[in-house]
Design goal:
heterodimer, A: 331 residues, mainly beta, four-stranded antiparallel beta sheet, 28 strands, B: 159 residues, alpha+beta, six-stranded antiparallel beta sheet, 7 strands, globular
């Protein structure tokens, strides 16, 4: 990492992160704000943080800060997130949306329980949001349900019951998901988010086999290999994905893939890799525990020196336009 | 280890609730206590791991792992404490805090790598042919034992 990067990381420190525990959830797409879980004496819950001033705006207070945490995404207007209520797993959750234009908060979903009181097992994947719609999979008695919600109206639609996998939202108003047809095979399904009418899935998704937790920014695609030791990327929903990174030590990557605006990032702990996919260049940043991307910014979190619950960890907020030149990719 | 007691009975004996299964209680260590009640292959004992393990903690874990797997033929049980921005088990979201029991089934490279299985894994095995994609927790994974020791830090393992 060059001296220019070192200076940039020092300048990007969010002062608030030196005083309270803030865990970034998503960028706010404006090059200045981001959403986070915050734990402090004054407020614990989901907040919007101004990275420049370290002021924050409460979005939703956690009912039980000792166990509640959040993960989700922002589509440019709506923040959508899972609020998890247990530290023993991620099956007990409620799904919330917040309109950044109007400030309207709405609960749009919740996990359900079996008669024994235990929550059905769901994919440990946060809801996705794009162009005013949110989607997620959640466990049920018969396997799982696939939900799509119109965030403007709050209207919820179940597009699949049985064995859907985690969905992707892609440009053109489509939700795409894998549907298991037996224990060893599945079909890729697609539907219009507005009507639920079935459509032909995009070629790159239709051809996927053995992808782990694929993510899309609407137009491009990234996912991990089944062993989590390599990263695959496709620039569009028409191009075949190709491998763009393999862990040098063949160790599993952390579950931290992100994609936005021509950039892909992930953590091979304790280093983060950020790639400019259009330029074919990347940078390795040492001592990073988490990375978040949006269309305007890159948000990095340094791991605390000591492992602890709600440890104070430096959050670094950088505008993508301010980043120094990356190194050329060899793959 | 062919004994197969019912899940509900084990949950009761372990004191498992929706808040999970404790590492220790006022009555001792529920996991090794219950394990020792239902098998005689291994005399399980708890081994606490400091929150930030040092080299002696890691080598101790590797030694215990090899002893159980190669010497006794019994799995080691890990009690993970995952905190945001620090290493997580494979496929566990890096931004979340999670307590999670998992079983260690083997090792490679003289104990330097730990082979484990994860009950979070669902019914979908994406490594088999025909599955387009799935959520990210594999049934079987291998990680450096030093990383596993860090994940166990603040709780421990039963061997």
């Amino acid at each position: 990492m060059s001296p220019a990067w070192g200076a940039l990381l020092a300048r990007g420190l969010v002062g608030l992160s030196r005083r309270v525990d803030i865990q970034p959830i998503a960028g706010a797409d404006d090059g200045r704000h981001f959403f986070a879980s915050m734990y402090s004496k004054a407020f614990s819950g989901v907040v919007e943080v101004d990275a420049g001033t370290s002021m924050y705006t409460p979005v939703h207070r956690f009912a039980n800060p000792a166990t509640d945490q959040a993960a989700g995404s922002f589509d440019g207007r709506w923040l959508v997130w899972d609020e998890y209520h247990s530290l023993q797993g991620l099956d007990d959750f409620a799904v919330w949306s917040w309109d950044s234009k109007t400030g309207r908060l709405r609960q749009i979903g919740a996990a359900t329980r079996s008669t024994s009181g235990a929550f059905w097992s769901s994919d440990w994947v946060a809801p996705v949001a794009l162009d005013g719609f949110a989607a997620w999979e959640q466990g049920t008695r018969s396997g799982g349900d696939l939900y799509v919600v119109n965030l403007a109206t709050g209207r919820s639609r179940v597009l699949s019951r049985g064995h859907p996998g985690g969905p992707l939202l892609v440009q053109g108003g489509l939700v795409v998901w894998p549907e298991s047809t037996s224990s060893s095979s599945a079909t890729v399904m697609a539907a219009k988010v507005t009507t639920g009418q079935r459509r032909t899935p995009p070629p790159a998704l239709r051809a996927l086999r053995g992808a782990i937790t694929p993510l899309s920014d609407g137009s491009s695609l990234v996912y991990a290999s089944p062993s989590w030791t390599s990263v695959w990327w496709s620039p569009s929903m028409s191009d075949a994905p190709r491998d763009v990174f393999a862990s040098p030590a063949n160790n599993p990557l952390q579950d931290s893939l992100v994609i936005a605006h021509g950039h892909v990032a992930f953590v091979d702990w304790p280093a983060a890799y950020v790639a400019d996919t259009r330029a074919g260049r990347y940078v390795e940043i040492n001592d990073i525990g988490l990375v978040v991307l949006d269309n305007e910014s890159l948000i990095l979190v340094r791991p605390s020196a000591q492992k602890a619950a709600h440890a104070i960890s430096d959050v670094i907020f950088l505008r993508l336009s301010s980043l120094p030149t990356f190194s050329a990719c060899s793959r | 280890m062919s004994n197969s007691p019912e899940q509900a009975l084990l949950a009761s004996l372990l004191g498992t609730t929706t808040s999970g299964t404790a590492w220790s209680t006022g009555n001792g260590y529920p996991v090794p206590n219950v394990l020792n009640s239902y098998q005689s292959i291994n005399d399980y004992v708890p081994e606490a791991m400091p929150a930030s393990p040092g080299s002696s903690d890691i080598s101790g874990y590797e030694s215990d792992l090899m002893f159980d797997i190669s010497g006794v033929g019994a799995p080691v049980i890990g009690d993970a404490w995952e905190v945001p921005n620090h290493p997580h088990l494979v496929g566990h979201p890096l931004g979340d805090q999670i307590f999670h029991w998992f079983d260690v089934r083997g090792y490679t490279n003289g104990g330097a790598n730990t082979m484990y299985e994860d009950s979070v894994h669902g019914f979908t095995d994406v490594s088999s042919s025909g599955i387009p994609w799935a959520a990210g927790v594999p049934a079987y994974s291998t990680m450096p034992s030093s990383t596993i020791a860090g994940i166990l830090g603040g709780r421990g393992y039963v061997w």
